Predict the 3D structure of the following.
Amino acid sequence: MKFLLSDVNLWYNDTQALKSVSMDIDANEITAFIGPSGCGKSTLIKTLNRMNDLIEGCKITGQVLLDGEDVYGAMDVNLLRKRVGMVFQKPNPFPMSVYDNIAFGPRTHGIKAKRQLDEIVERSLRDAAIWDEVKDRLRKSALGLSGGQQQRLCIARALSVSPEVLLMDEPTSALDPISTAKIEDLVLELKKDYTVIIVTHNMQQATRISDRTAFFLLGEMVEYGDTEQIFSKPEDKRCEDYITGRFG
């Protein structure tokens, strides 16, 4: 499951937020987007599953291909979002039980049999490394979980509809170091089965978990390559300045 972006530009009304972004994102790898606030990272990640469609005055040109299929062509948006799941910066569990949070997506896609839902709930929670912590409280409100647990629950909810790609927009920025480490370990496990794209402000996090890193500045993708190369020998002075803490 890979993405191929060609000359993607995006405007919010008169403001250009992405400028001629072209890149390929490979299957079963973790790709990190880094750069200062307002540089286009979150805008780009939301372009991959058409979350920007929900914003008034948003206009996109260029091409986004998912395994050769045009995301902005005839592709059904609901099917796209099933294939390309999203985890947000702040944990956002639904105000319902742990079980119903996970079963929500499968039910929406027509799965009603209790046994099948039970299996999906358990599998998703296991895949998100939180089953042992919540298996005795499946019928209790998800809002009673800690922040780190809620974020892993949201990851399980994204996994419940069997996506192929997982988009993560700063998934650990609201979490403590221990919860952050658990999510990072989880992401490294998930790449065996999923393509993972993560926006992060934490450059140590990018070096710890990503295979490839893209550096963005003012809507432009300045540099993109193997994470080790980007952090040890960046080719662009702006990328080097950002990584070494001279700005941003």
Notes: The longest helix spans residues 114-127. The first strand starts at residue 3 and ends at 12. Strands lie at 3-12, 15-25, 30-34, 58-66, 69-70, 84-87, 165-169, 195-199, 212-217, 220-226. The mean pLDDT is 96.
